[in-house]
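#dry-run=false #mode=assembly
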Amino acid sequence: MGRVISIANQKGGVGKTTTSINLAGGLALSRKRVLMIDLDPQGNASSGVGIPLTERTPSIYNALIGECPLSDVIRPTETGRLFVAPATRDLIGAEVELVDQPDRAEYLRRAVEPIVDDYDYIIIDCPPSLGLLTVNGLTAAKTVLVPLQAEYYALEGLSQLLETVRLVAGAYNPDLELEGIVLTMVDRRTNLCRQVEDEVRGHFGEQVFETVIPRNVRLSEAPSFGQTIFRYDIRCIGAESYLSLAREMIRRDRKE
Amino acid sequence: MGRVISIANQKGGVGKTTTSINLAGGLALSRKRVLMIDLDPQGNASSGVGIPLTERTPSIYNALIGECPLSDVIRPTETGRLFVAPATRDLIGAEVELVDQPDRAEYLRRAVEPIVDDYDYIIIDCPPSLGLLTVNGLTAAKTVLVPLQAEYYALEGLSQLLETVRLVAGAYNPDLELEGIVLTMVDRRTNLCRQVEDEVRGHFGEQVFETVIPRNVRLSEAPSFGQTIFRYDIRCIGAESYLSLAREMIRRDRKE
Ligand SMILES: Nc1ncnc2c1ncn2[C@@H]1O[C@H](COP(=O)(O)OP(=O)(O)OP(=O)(O)O)[C@@H](O)[C@H]1O
Ligand SMILES: Nc1ncnc2c1ncn2[C@@H]1O[C@H](COP(=O)(O)OP(=O)(O)OP(=O)(O)O)[C@@H](O)[C@H]1O
Ligand SMILES: [Mg+2]
Ligand SMILES: [Mg+2]
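#status=ok
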């Protein structure tokens, strides 16, 4: 049974897409079979693994509204064992089209069900909002991974996100749990970063991954080549930390 | 007649809120009377100028749906001549509540009209999406200022944003123009940053502000004290660059 994990945080620019792509890459490197679903109309996760805009038809939008099965949308990437269901701007329309449907939160879960056993992990990259797309992502998932930038605004938004996770669990998905919190763009030279890390570990303890993702310019260069960090520069600290995150996640999942 | 400027970009974490607060602060320092409207349910612009969550009733949500006039929501800040209309999470509900109304894009413009002449500048901080709240922000505005992080994904999203601006102008606000593009979190030591800047200036020329905002940790520390950069550390490069941005904007507005 594939483990479905949503990468969510309504705060913008905290590293959701970078974590989706490189955690998925790290899991594939660890011999897991992985599907990444791009649920953001910006389509950053799709271009970050090299799927040009012209090759995204059909896209996750078509599968979400039931026009075709998800299997018709899934494509291979340059990385072995890593597949992607790409997104286009059409996805913006889904939020308006589905809002009046009584089962509006369950469209993605229904699309994922038929193929969930074909993968060890399914990673869903969510947009920076708590709207219907993210609610679909949380309803389809078994757990949610929260990338947290070590900054003030990101910390401020955390309680709102965790409350939404509880609401979605109560209304649509009782099994939904927190996979964990991963600190991103960490620069331990600054006071602010150290303060945020201390506060988060103090408050959330074990739920915070030991692995942190440091600020590393190679991570922001890789998407312009459509490559995961492992294909772009496997020796950099960004690749090392995402591989360590993938390994830590596999270890934690085994303990369950 | 107050100049209404929306700060918008659907890409998350590019510096919309930081630019809203510190441009508004820089304009107030230049003896302009300024209102900042927080249109993001995250409420970052409100906390960034020190309005606690408990002091945001009524909020922009109540004025937007017509429950009270905007003048009832406006509060002073620690900075002279700078006022704010704060946001709360209720704002998330507005997107769903207004979606079926025929004039759903015009709620903010109607709320702003009665008070527009009381200010020299009205700055609207938009959320990271192209949904109904941002459309309301673009419909109420005379111009739109686009903060652009010098990174690949931010550049990729620019064409989508400018297309949305054209669509909103055509449908709801024919006078809407681009105030300009301002490069944020600039670190000219990296190749990526220099490449993005060259590409943007090559393509958009005069529409890109000469002033760039460098990456400066003081800018990310100030919000945890609820202060603009000018009250937090007026001598830092972050304060200098936002004051220069405000001055450049005033100069450009005079030329029109
Ligand atoms: N650890 C890191 N070091 C350096 N740059 C990073 C790191 N993680 C992400 N970035 C860069 O920071 C920017 C924001 O990251 P990303 O787009 O992954 O965040 P996001 O949360 O998915 O944003 P959005 O809210 O728009 O979906 C991107 O330009 C990315 O390349
Ligand atoms: N020039 C800068 N130098 C250093 N840090 C910055 C700078 N500008 C913004 N930041 C920090 O980067 C993060 C993102 O900025 P900000 O929240 O202003 O972006 P935003 O576009 O408003 O995000 P959202 O899409 O969530 O609304 C914040 O933690 C902020 O403090
Ligand atoms: Mg993203
Ligand atoms: Mg913001």
